[in-house]
Every structure is written in structure tokens, then in C-alpha cells.
Write a structure and sequence with these properties.
Length: 215
Amino acid sequence: MINTDFSINSFKGGYDDNFQYILTCLRSRAQIAVDAALPLETVEPILNSPLAAMLITHTHGDHITFIDEYLEAYPKLLIIIHEQSAGRISAVNVHPTHDGEQIQIGELNIHVLHTPGHFPDSSCYTLENIVFTGDTLFVGRTGRTVSQGSDTGQLYHSVYEKLLTLPQDTVIYPGHDYGQSPTISIAKNIDISPLLQAENEKDFIKRMAAFEASR
Ligand SMILES: [Fe+2]
């Protein structure tokens, strides 16, 4: 499927092969950052006007490292973040989100999925046939559940009920470059990922325990 309404620029770097994305609405020219994992100067060459908004996938430090730089440069930047962490961000414009919400930026309609498990405030954002998955879903596996606030049972429900049920040609844009390719469709990801082939929650928890033991 060829999209003519938006483009995505991907940048890699930050703490641990983080991905930083700039989403551009090609009709309104509004631009949206996904996370603040890389310095503003890295993405600045492709910015054509003040950045309109930033989608926060979760508040682990490596995903918001450079948020103050962005806010200093664009004081009116709209920070879109799950409601339980909105109070942690000191910005003029904060939009606290909840599961199922639709947000319009420029002419783009972004759908919010609250996907706790890797971290309580994890959110994924879908737009037509793509989804920004943060650390909830990577190419080849799910996010880990070893940080404070992680919950493997919750991750199962988030991944299996909200992400793997998206149209199978949906392409994921994850928070880190941990897989065999930067992006992948949901269908292909299930094919290559034992953690996405669990029969039920109990089986998933068992598979995650084995995965973590192997790290
Ligand atoms: Fe994380």
C-alpha cells in the first residue's frame, strides 16, 4: 500500500539503538515527533516548520532524554502522553491520553492504544496501516518486563488483544532497532517471533520467563 498522505523519517541512535521518528502530514505539512530519544539537531534538517506535536510511547528515560531541547525550541509543542504520566511533563501544552482516543494533528487521525506491560504508561499510536509500538512490540519479540512497573500478564493482553489483532498488513515502527529489519508487518512478525505464538496468557508468561532467563 502506498500512502500519499504522510511520510515517516526514521533516525537511529540514542541510548541503545533507539528509533526516533518524524511523521509529516503531507497535506498540512504539520510534523510530529515520536519520542525524544535523539537530539533535536539530528532531526532538524528535515523539519519544515515548528514541530506541532510529540507522541510519547512511554516515560522510560531513554525515550524522553531530549524532551527539554524540543520544548525549548518549540515552546508550544503539544506533548501527547498517557494520562497517568501527564503530570510528569512540564510543558505548556500537554494532552493526556486514554485508550481508544482519536487525535487529529494536521489532517492525520491518530488512534491511541494504551498498552501497559513493559511499562504502565506505554502507549501505541496507529495511523492508517502503521503503528508506533515503543517498547511494547519489537521486530522479533515483545518488550521486556524486567523494569519496575512491568507486568507480563498485562503485556500479554496489550500485545495479543490490541496489537496482533490489527490488520495483518499493519507495519510496526518500534522504539528500538532490535530485529532483523527496522520494521515488519504484524503477520510476518508473528511468523518469526516465538513470543508472539503463545497459546494463552499462561503460555506467554512461560515463554517470557524462558526468554528473560536466556538474557
Ligand atoms: Fe522502555
